[in-house]
Amino acid sequence: MLSYRHSFHAGNFADLLKHIVLTEILEHLIKKDKPFDYIDTHAGAGLYDLQSEHAEKLGEYSNGIAKLKPQDWPSLARYFAAIDACNPNDQLRFYPGSPLIANYFMRPQDKATLYELHPTDFNLLSKNTRTNRRIKVLNQDSLTGLLSLLPPTSRRALILMDPSYEMKSDYDQVFKIIKNAHKKFATGTYALWYPVVERHRIRKLEKLFINSGIRNIQRFELGLEADSAEHGMTSSGMIVINPPWTLFQQMQTLLPKLASTLDAGKGAFSRCDLLVPE
Ligand SMILES: C[S@@+](CC[C@H](N)C(=O)[O-])C[C@H]1O[C@@H](n2cnc3c(N)ncnc32)[C@H](O)[C@@H]1O
To answer: For the chain, how many structural domains are there in total?
Structure first.
């Protein structure tokens, strides 16, 4: 049984990296009128109350979204607009998860499939997305379901994979799923989030991608402190296959500024790497 609940972590520094990359990719997809598919393999609840008992327990958003003043980030205007759309009173009370960020960008021609296994979060997700009939919510294991959706009829898609890595085998499994998905749909954009808790697992994951034969892979990381065996998740990253051509440069500008904004004197850092060229 899964125990991870994203409501304890919503709006933290890892969500910032993930959702900024997500926003940049969605902004690129809507530049063309042609429809796209959004597939979220680990969707969570969709919307999080930052004043809930869960969010307040760890207070992670206070060193995340609460640290960013929208006026200081003109290039992130659409990301803040997606957050504003969930906060009718102009105050930061609710934070959108990946499904509601995608929903903000979707047009009548686009559609989304969201997978969520946890029964409580599945019910919340269904409720939080019920106004958009182009969003399908599945209480199924995405790791067995994803391949059946590929290639999508639109032939343009973003597949976001954001597992909770509760089991160590998840690191190998996500790579296998992406490799198989890429065989069926090589032109899709794949965005995989990972936590840095034990760096050796990420080095291994990185090597798997580098040696996979898949081309055009970038990686972005944002950390609050240097790797450490004792401090839990110190940084997190996104591996993106077939990114928009503008993404690397945008992240090269944004990430160092984000790292210095979030720095609590423990050596926050960022990195952008071209893992495999086009
Ligand atoms: C990190 S959270 C997702 C957060 C969300 N992507 C966001 O950015 O707002 C991971 C979610 O994946 C769900 N999950 C874990 N394994 C899954 C699987 N095999 N299929 C579908 N959902 C899964 C968990 O219940 C959890 O809610």
So the answer is: 1
